[in-house]
């Protein structure tokens, strides 16, 4: 049995270097960060969009130590605009994150979404051998399970929805709510990050489709689709080992020496769901309220560029840069700059050195399916505090974090002071508690459980009926 993974984003993106050769750089984002190690272990095929270099169709990755094959699908320029920027990121992304005022539902974009989903499904069918398992990922490809099921009624199909599944009153604003659900229900097993998301999903199936549902299952003709909360884990051991290496310790020390102040760390894709302006505003309030903190605390914001062609994301960048400038203009003094803003991705070693150097990590999305950054920090830090939004899926699993409301600028500013004053023993106890939880459900277990349960599905007796 081989695994065929499908996702819109590819794990590594090709870039032509100054030497004229193509180099493959790891894509940044929760989905690819989680699945690349899975595929490095399992092998198999990964089907994804070829955003650049469309001439490279089949590649073996990672470059240095190939473990799996990537089938790259070029998309027409119009489809990129209508499917990716349009329906996926202009309708489904904001709707699922409760930003209804940003969601735009356009027929032409929905048509492109269907078309591109068909392209992905066909590519998977073309390369599948008997017994292969299909594992489809995320909101860009919700129709793929139904399309594969129609062509291969007996196929084993898993789906993982990486973002929030919103409350039914939000979901039913979508004009194609039925079609989206029917597409997803082509899968045998649907995973989501939290119990609340699966409850919302089951409610949608019951109310929108009139389907028969039970705890964790939906009946679709003669088939039973399992819908379960299975939050993605991280590779805890890798983060722990990297974080405790002498090289990382030295890098972290250098970061601290350069700052010469306490360090608040924020690491995000530059996305409006992440609550970056609200967080910066809270830091501004904190500096206003606590003059003694001026010159003693620095906020380091690492923001990796994301979806830069979309006006909403360009606007966010301008807004964030304006706020950074305003806070720095107002409070900088004697060589101290309150906000250090890094507009790029960090490589894994740099990232972990930052996690280790931080006195507190601020993960304050307005809404987030899970948030891997919070887990990575909890696995890497030795003496830091995690402030975590109540609207991030990961909050269910990280009781050692201090839960915050990202909309409450005053509350956030007060919690910052509490975090910075927390005694070392309490910080260590909280980290130990989180590490224990992370180890119990790490990435290896997540993958093994999902694939085992998916393989088991086929053993169930009874006819399989297509949608
Ligand atoms: P999302 O899926 O919305 O991107 P997550 O927090 O779940 O959010 O996952 C983001 C992943 O990308 C994490 O593995 C994190 O380490 C990585 N990442 C995010 N921002 C950066 C950055 N500025 N530099 C390096 N890695 C980043
Ligand atoms: C989130 C989504 C992923 C997506 C990633 C990066 O993690 O759940 O599906 O790949 O963001 O976004 P991008 O639009 O660059 O793929």
TrEMBL record:
Highest taxon in the source lineage:
Bacteria
What's an example GO BP annotation here?
A: trehalose biosynthetic process
Q: Which GO terms describe its molecular function?
A: alpha,alpha-trehalose-phosphate synthase (UDP-forming) activity
Name the family: Belongs to the glycosyltransferase 20 family.
Q: Output this protein's name.
A: Uncharacterized protein
């Amino acid at each position: 049995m081989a695994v065929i993974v499908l996702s819109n984003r590819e794990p590594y993106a090709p870039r032509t270097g100054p030497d004229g050769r193509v180099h493959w750089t790891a894509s940044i984002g929760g989905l690819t960060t989680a699945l690349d190690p899975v595929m490095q272990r399992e092998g198999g095929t990964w089907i994804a969009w070829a955003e650049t270099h469309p001439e490279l169709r089949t590649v073996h990755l990672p470059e240095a130590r190939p473990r799996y094959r990537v089938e790259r699908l070029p998309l027409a320029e119009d489809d990129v605009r209508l499917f990716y920027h349009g329906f996926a990121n202009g309708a489904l992304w904001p709707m699922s994150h409760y930003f209804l005022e940003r969601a735009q539902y356009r027929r032409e974009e929905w048509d492109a979404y269907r078309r591109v989903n068909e392209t992905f499904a066909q590519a998977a069918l073309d390369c599948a051998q008997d017994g292969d398992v299909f594992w489809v990922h995320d909101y860009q490809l919700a129709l793929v399970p139904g399309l594969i099921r129609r062509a291969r009624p007996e196929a084993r199909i898993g789906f993982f929805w990486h973002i929030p599944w919103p409350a039914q009153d939000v979901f039913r604003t979508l004009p194609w709510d039925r079609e989206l659900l029917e597409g997803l229900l082509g899968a045998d097993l649907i995973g989501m990050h939290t119990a609340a998301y699966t409850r919302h999903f089951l409610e949608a199936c019951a109310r929108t489709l009139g389907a028969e549902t039970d705890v964790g299952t939906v009946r679709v003709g003669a088939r039973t689709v399992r819908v379960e909360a299975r939050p993605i884990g991280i590779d805890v051991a890798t983060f722990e080992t990297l974080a405790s290496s002498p090289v990382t310790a030295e890098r972290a020390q250098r970061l601290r020496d350069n700052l010469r102040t306490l360090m608040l760390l924020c690491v995000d894709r530059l996305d409006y769901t992440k609550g970056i302006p609200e967080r910066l505003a809270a830091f501004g309030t904190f500096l206003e309220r606590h003059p003694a903190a001026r010159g003693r605390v620095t906020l380091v914001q690492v923001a990796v560029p994301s979806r830069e062609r979309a006006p909403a994301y360009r606007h966010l960048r301008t807004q964030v840069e304006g706020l950074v400038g305003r806070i720095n203009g107002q409070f900088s003094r004697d060589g101290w700059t309150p906000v250090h803003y890094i507009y790029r991705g960090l490589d894994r070693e740099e990232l972990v050195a930052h996690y280790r150097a931080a006195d507190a990590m601020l993960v304050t999305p307005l809404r987030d399916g899970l948030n891997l950054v919070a887990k990575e920090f909890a696995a890497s830090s030795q003496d830091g505090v995690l402030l975590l939004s109540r609207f991030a899926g990961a909050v269910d699993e990280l009781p050692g974090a201090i839960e915050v409301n990202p909309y409450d600028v005053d509350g956030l500013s007060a919690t910052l002071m509490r975090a910075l004053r927390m005694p070392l023993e309490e910080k260590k106890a909280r980290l130990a508690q989180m590490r224990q939880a992370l180890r119990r459900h790490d990435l290896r277990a997540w993958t093994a459980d999902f694939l085992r349960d998916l393989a088991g599905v086929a053993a169930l007796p009874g006819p399989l009926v297509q949608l």
